Every structure is written in structure tokens, then in C-alpha cells.
Amino acid sequence: MRHAMALASKAEGIGEIPVGAVLVLGDEVIGEGWNRSISEHDACAHAEIMAIRAAGTRLQNYRLLDTVLYVTLEPCCMCAGALIHSRVKRVVFGARDLKTGAAGSVFEILQDPRHNHRVELCGDVLADACSAQLSAFFKRRRAEKKAQKLASQPASDTPA
């Protein structure tokens, strides 16, 4: 998870929401990713998708059997679907996503019995640290937007 957090920092460094993902087969990293939706103009460029794409290319197979994904934020519906289709065995996530989480917080997609593949789950791993990384990013971003707004307002005319 710490490696995923380091990848999340890469995302933050390019102005993206700091989410990182590492896909492991046995004791080998076969794919990694960080959010790049903004920089790549691609709504699908979430950390999990980038890690899945890298692993598929590395293994020359879209089925990622017996793999474990470590991700700093609970996957969304899109990523949950990709994890099911790629047959990832297990997902270990840090912070819960109370707005769009698809691993139990809002939706329960990864273990829905209607799917032909269910992904094992382990949540809340280093949750406080993962949450703090995200919270600090959004706090800083709100402060930056507020400062930008103040800077763009004309100076008030006060009598001398």
C-alpha cells in the first residue's frame, strides 16, 4: 500500500487527484498506475485502469488471474467492472469512497453474486494515511481556488 501511496503522490505532482494502484502477481509488481484523467483527457484513466492496462500488456493477456490490486481509494463502478472482467483475484484498498465507492461503501459490485467472477476484498488498509493524503490535496486545492478568486477580483475603492 505504501508503494501505491507513492504513486498517488505522482498523480498529485501533475495536478491529479492522488490515487495510486499497484497490481501484483506473486511477489512481482506487474502493473502500476496513478490517476491521469485530467492530464490525458481521459475519463477512464483512473489509477486502477492504468495498472490493469500495464499488467495486461506485460502478461500479454487481459485475464489477470491470481493477481492482487493494492489501491489507495476504494474503486468506483467503472474500475470495479474492469477488475471483474480482468479476473483480478483480490483488491486491497485504503480509504473508503463514501460518494462513489463500489466495494461496499455505496455499491457492492465486486462481490455481487450475479457476476460470474467475484473479487475478494480487504478494505481500510492504511486508511487513515490514504484518507489524509486525499484530504490534504482537496484542502490545498480549495485554498488555491479561493486565492485565485480573490486575486482576480478588482481592488475595492476605499477612501484615502
The percent range for helix content is 25-40%
Biggest β-sheet description: 5 strands, mixed
Structural class: alpha/beta
> What is the terminal-to-terminal distance?
58 Å
The value of Rg in angstroms is: 18 Å
pLDDT averaged residue by residue: 95
Side-by-side strand order of the widest sheet: 2-1-3-4-5
Order of helices and strands: HEEHEHEEH
Counting DSSP H or I runs of 4 or more residues, the number of helices is 4
* Stretches with pLDDT under 50, minimum 5 residues: none
Q: Estimate the strand proportion.
A: 15-25%
Shape: elongated
Q: What would a concise description of this structure say?
A:
This protein has 160 residues and is an alpha/beta fold. The protein has four helices and five strands; from the N terminus they run H-E-E-H-E-H-E-E-H. Helix content is 38%, strand content 18%.
